[in-house]
Amino acid sequence: MNANTRPKPIYMDYHATTPMDPRVVERMLYYMTQAFGNASSTDHTYGDEAEAAVTAAARHIATLLDTAPRNIIFTSGATESINLALQGHCNARTPRQRIAVSPTEHKAVLDTCQALQQQGKAILTWLHVDQQGRIDLDHLKRVCQTGIDLICIMAANNEIGTVAPIQEIANIAAQYNAAYFCDATQGVGKIPIDFDAAGITYLALSAHKMYGPKGSGALIVQPGANLLPLIHGGGHQQGMRSGTLNVPGIVGLGEACKLRSQEMDQDEPVIQAKRDHLQNLLQAHIPQLVINGDLHHRLAGNLHISIPGLNNSILIAHLRHKLAISTGSACTSGIEAPSHVLQAIHLPSNLIEGALRISIGKFTTTADIINTAHILIQAQAAIAQKQ
């Protein structure tokens, strides 16, 4: 059997990216082929229709996040949103900004913060996390008492799935007059987030983590927050992000948000039940299995496991044509280095070596769960027998 005729692996890597919802694809297709106008072209109906679609998408995003459409800046994805928030914040202010950052943040946040520090625009203070990846709120308060301008703590971790207490963090930020940047890339559409009520200053999101297209995202900005743009030319989006709008991508993001608003409350408990089923199957046959992250506050579709004594790279090589799972974040895929998240939570080296990230979503079937368990159990047993 060649690669073209071999059955596709079971997809269990929803934290890396999600399959697009067919309804999102259908909606986008119209704006690729029929309503292809430039949203800034105000002299004809093609432009009018594109502009109306962008306006509608902003409303759908605003509804999901309980904010106003005017607070939304469309971007090419979460990484651009993160850079606009962090660089834009620091570039708009002097002297150097004091940033408190969690060591378990996505690399897009960590690398941007470290670049700002190297440029002399920021001073970083590292926050404490426990072995489940939970933020030490008492330490956060003590750090804020020393004077902090910006707090960076994500809504939900992209590796171990731990969900942060967003409201408590925002309350601390407000108490000490600090801005709060929340990378909500993994959280939007999976957990309730009320941007306005929480008092978040900046929030980043990406469409492709919630059944939308790659290359489309947004930054939500609290009114009155002072940001300098990264991209100049044309003054689009209130001067905050110039460039011709990606109308099909924005439509896809908006449609994905609309569907999550309507279906999240029904989908997530079903996803959690399937995740728990898989976890129980694996634990029944691999008794030494360790579950990483906060078991009581994690994303419904997240199952981050470690198998002591197992080399995860060997396991992936053994089953990659049958099962699509990962050893860590897609942002560092291919880099031969231990996960910074697992190191930050002080996971023992033997558990880091045997760590696997399994993530499921709304298109994961019960058959996928059962077959995944069977494949993993069989592969683990075969590798153990050879050792």
Automatic annotation (TrEMBL):
Q: Give the matching Gene3D superfamilies.
A: 1.10.260.50, Aspartate Aminotransferase, domain 1, Type I PLP-dependent aspartate aminotransferase-like (Major domain)
Q: Which SUPFAM superfamilies match?
A: PLP-dependent transferases
- Aminotransferase class V domain span: 10-369
Q: Which cofactor does it need?
A: pyridoxal 5'-phosphate
Q: Name one GO molecular function term.
A: metal ion binding
Say yes or no: keyword Hydrolase present.
Answer: no
- Stated EC number for the protein is 2.8.1.7
One Pfam family named in its UniProt record: Aminotran_5
Presence of keyword Nucleus: no
Q: Which UniProt keywords apply?
A: Iron, Iron-sulfur, Metal-binding, Pyridoxal phosphate, Transferase
Give, as one word, the top-level EC class.
transferase
**Reactions catalysed, as given in the entry:** (sulfur carrier)-H + L-cysteine = (sulfur carrier)-SH + L-alanine
| InterPro entries associated with the record | Aminotrans_V_dom, Cysteine_dSase, PyrdxlP-dep_Trfase, PyrdxlP-dep_Trfase_major, PyrdxlP-dep_Trfase_small
Family classification: Belongs to the class-V pyridoxal-phosphate-dependent aminotransferase family. NifS/IscS subfamily.
Protein name (record): Cysteine desulfurase
* Organism, scientific name: Ktedonobacter racemifer DSM 44963
Show the taxonomic lineage.
Answer: Bacteria, Bacillati, Chloroflexota, Ktedonobacteria, Ktedonobacterales
